[in-house]
Design brief:
By secondary structure, this protein is of the alpha/beta class. 68% of the residues lie in helices and 7% in strands. The chain folds into two domains: 262 residues, no CATH class; 126 residues, abc type-2 transporter like fold.
Length: 429
């Protein structure tokens, strides 16, 4: 046990360097700054919506209807700056001179066309000075008000034509009230919203899983390559320490550092992602009503699945690390492992397990790195059989890979195994 702890401490010191700590702090600060910037931009946009928007207007009609339109705009916090110029070209120049962003032109036949129910067109000119998001917000505000006025005029037509009937009942005689059903639980809402909420809520856990597995594997294989390059592995093997203690110490050290890095990154990433999401209180209530939230038992099963997957990654990378002669070759050997982790992550992000082809399902089930991602998807639906079967498969796979790594580590192949030109070879020990 003492030897194991010594190896464990050694791995922690070697892996948790000042450069790595600086990288972690820097990434968290970067995520924080990006999130703060996005939140600040959103707040400024919301503030602008509450502020008065200035609009230049060239009223060529000067009728009661056109004046009513301008009054409606002013009622909705739009400041009207009337342009007295006779030509459109002069009006545009005047708008630019006044430093206004938008010019609304009401045609001469505005009232006549509306009363005759012929329809009419108004022209909107945008004075482009840049592509600030605030300018787009102002335009959206004006467009929304113009659409509101258009709707009110339409409602007036319908009321006059149908003897005071509610225009909404005539325009939209059929209204739809949507519900979603999950495991015999019913909640008001639509499928698109539920999918969006589910995806948003499930992004963090898979990312945490992926980063934990990737870091654990890359840590140990890089450590093996570095020790071979510096010839410290040979010294370590000459010590009166059981090789199984060396293996377990290396695995434990890499797992702890990898988990620490993953947690730190996920905290920063979570803050960054939260800047994109508005308040979804109702959505969260829907998720709870439908039971689409993970329980304590679910997290236990997910933790077991992740732990076993990390053991698999560490064992596989330990074996691959034996073929690495230096850090460079170790880094090249990480690619297959990273690929096996990334593929199921992206597949399960865009596809549902129940609608996949048989071949794709077989690939995911056989790939040990898929099971934590599968667990995070199916546990909210109380599909425990897939998760438990995956845990059993991972336990057997991890036990076999750990046995193989210990077996190889107990031979001289740990020092003599080579991988020239990307082709794995074992020299005779």
């Amino acid at each position: 046990m003492k030897n194991f702890l010594n190896i464990f401490k050694k791995e922690i010191k070697e892996l948790l360097t000042k450069e790595m700590i600086f990288s972690l702090v820097f990434m968290v600060m970067l995520f924080g700054l990006m999130g703060s910037f996005i939140n600040d931009a959103k707040e400024r946009t919301q503030e602008q919506l509450l502020e008065t928007t200035s609009l230049a207007v060239l009223n060529l009609d000067n009728s009661a209807y056109s004046k009513e339109v301008l009054n409606k705009l002013e009622e909705n916090k739009i400041e009207i700056v009337e342009i007295e110029e006779e030509s459109l070209e002069d009006a545009v120049k005047k708008t630019q001179k006044e430093g206004l962003m938008f010019l609304l032109v009401l045609p001469e036949n505005f009232e006549e066309s509306i009363k005759g129910m012929h329809g009419t067109e108004v022209e909107m000119y945008s004075m482009v000075k840049g592509f600030d998001a605030n300018e787009n917000t102002s335009f959206s505000h004006i467009s929304a008000v113009v659409n509101l006025i258009n709707q009110e005029i339409s409602n007036t037509y319908i009321e006059n034509a149908f003897g005071g009937q509610n225009p909404e009942n005539i325009i939209n005689p059929i209204k739809t009230k949507e519900f979603v059903v999950v495991n015999n639980k019913v909640a008001p809402g639509n499928l698109a919203t539920l999918k969006a909420l589910s995806m948003a809520n499930s992004m963090i856990i898979p990312i945490l899983l992926m980063m934990s597995i990737m870091y654990a594997g890359t840590m140990i294989i890089t450590s093996m390559g570095l020790e071979k390059e510096n010839k410290t592995l040979e010294t370590l093997l000459t010590l009166p320490v059981k090789r199984i203690s060396i293996i377990l110490g290396k695995m434990a050290g890499a797992a702890v550092v990898a988990l620490l890095m993953a947690v730190v990154y996920i905290i920063g990433f979570n803050y960054y992602m939260s800047s994109f999401s508005a308040s979804v209180v109702d959505g969260e209530n829907i998720m709870q009503t439908l039971g689409l939230t993970m329980t304590f038992f679910d997290y236990i099963l997910l933790g077991i699945s992740l732990f076993l997957t990390i053991l698999v990654a560490l064992s596989v990378c330990m074996i691959l690390g034996m073929f690495a002669q230096d850090v460079k070759s170790a880094q090249s050997m990480q690619f297959p492992i990273i690929l096996l982790i990334m593929i199921p992550y992206f597949i399960l992000m865009f596809q549902d397990l129940g609608t996949m082809s048989i071949g794709l399902k077989i690939f995911l089930y056989l790939n040990p790195f898929s099971h934590p991602f599968i667990a995070s998807k199916v546990l909210i639906f109380d599909n425990y059989s897939i998760v438990i079967a995956g845990i059993v498969y991972l336990a057997v796979f991890a036990a076999f890979m750990m046995y193989l790594s210990v077996k190889l580590f107990n031979t001289d192949k740990v020092l003599t195994a080579k991988s020239p030109f990307g082709k794995l070879k074992l020299s005779k020990g």
